[in-house]
Amino acid sequence: MERKHDNFKLEQGNVVAAEFWHQLDDGRIQCDLCPRHCQLQDQQRGLCYVRARHQDQMVLTTYGLSSGYCIDPIEKKPLHHFLPGTPILSFGTAGCNLTCKFCQNWDISKSREMQTLSDSAPPEVIARAAQELGCRSVAFTYNDPIIFYEYARDVAKACHERSIKTVAVTAGYITDQARPEFFKWMDAANVDLKGFTEEFYQRLCGGHLQPILDTLVYLKKETSVWFEITTLLIPGENDSSAELEKLTQWIMDQLGPDVPLHFSAFHPDYKLRDRSGTPLETLMRAREIARQAGLHYVYTGNVHHRDGDTTFCPGCGEALIVRDWYNLVDYQLDHDFCRKCGSKVPGLFEARPGGWGARRVPVRLQDFSR
């Protein structure tokens, strides 16, 4: 069930004109950013809670605001083929355009309280902070950056001026109209493919499957964005062998064997607290199904499983990057080539990996506002 459109109070300073909307004949305006197409009267918010109508235009109400900043290992996004071992400055805002009952960041993505946004920074400050903190990239994460597109775009522009990469952690729920402009500013992405049935998306996510599939095909065929896929496996919901066979075969057929796929363990949270967590055996079964389908890089997440976290060479089987949680314990790549057989591994790799490890360091950006 969709949430009703709430009224909002305009707070100048955090509100900017939004893109991707049009006026309807009945006087309402329609948001064209995501497939929900919220239709709003004056002072109403969309379901995402951060895009709203003010008079005769759409506005973003959380520009420059954040629920907090943190330096993470890039493997936590998760990205295993993009600057391994390096630190990434991560932040999110509030709200979401899906209503997933199993959300693992529900206190942020489902928040309707602006008090959640306890920190603030203009785009230039975020880019400067990332550079001075030694971060090679900035992640838009914790909630979906699609809904704060204008802020993410401006941060990405500022980052690129300083040679800082940008990463979108997203559900990929976006319209054909907005998709090219959003991903134009991203260097990498992790896309949640939450399940592989329309019924799952409607019942547990409040959305539809096809737009996510369209996003994945677009990324593969129309962009140079490096992307990886994550599927959170929920016992009894999206973990049947039949569904996993269909999901992995679709990836193989539409995206090819080299797109990394992460199967992550579900932990009871938000509105699915009555469910059990995902057994390691389920993740291992999913990984084997994906590898049997022909996928080269299949990982397990949210569990301690070194084999499932290791990058193997598809040419000779050598363990190329061995991970212990978020620590790199062995590295057998020369740039993006296997040192043993010379096979090329897709992604963005450097001569030496980073040494950030598993640290997670919260930061405040006031010191960089000069």
Task: Please give a structural write-up.
The protein is an alpha/beta fold and 370 residues long. The chain has 2 domains: 16-60, no CATH class; 65-361, Aldolase class I (TIM Barrel). It has 9 helices and 22 strands. The chain has helices at 106-109, 123-132, 149-161, 179-183, 198-205, 210-222, 241-254, 280-293, 306-309, and strands spanning 16-17, 21-23, 29-31, 39-40, 51-54, 57-60, 65-66, 68-73, 87-92, 119-120, 137-140, 165-170, 188-192, 226-233, 261-265, 298-301, 311-312, 319-324, 327-331, 333-334, 337-338, 361-363. The strands form 6 sheets. The chain has a 9-stranded mixed sheet. It has a 3-stranded antiparallel sheet with strand order 1-6-5, with no helix packed on it. Strand 18 and strand 19 form a beta hairpin.
Short description:
This protein is of the alpha/beta class and about 375 residues long.
Assign the structural class, choosing from mainly alpha, mainly beta, alpha/beta, alpha+beta, or little secondary structure: alpha/beta
Main CATH class of the largest domain: Alpha Beta
Contiguous runs where pLDDT drops below 50 for at least 5 residues: none
Helix content class: 10-25%
Keyword list:
about 375 residues; alpha/beta; TIM Barrel; nine-stranded mixed β-sheet; three-stranded antiparallel β-sheet; 22 strands; about 25% helix; globular
Question: How would you summarize the topology of this molecule?
Answer:
Blueprint: E1 16-17, E2 21-23, E3 29-31, E4 39-40, E5 51-54, E6 57-60, E7 65-66, E8 68-73, E9 87-92, H1 106-109, E10 119-120, H2 123-132, E11 137-140, H3 149-161, E12 165-170, H4 179-183, E13 188-192, H5 198-205, H6 210-222, E14 226-233, H7 241-254, E15 261-265, H8 280-293, E16 298-301, H9 306-309, E17 311-312, E18 319-324, E19 327-331, E20 333-334, E21 337-338, E22 361-363
Parallel strand pairs: 9-11, 11-12, 12-13, 13-14, 14-15, 15-16
Antiparallel strand pairs: 1-6, 2-3, 3-4, 5-6, 7-10, 8-9, 8-22, 17-18, 18-19, 20-21
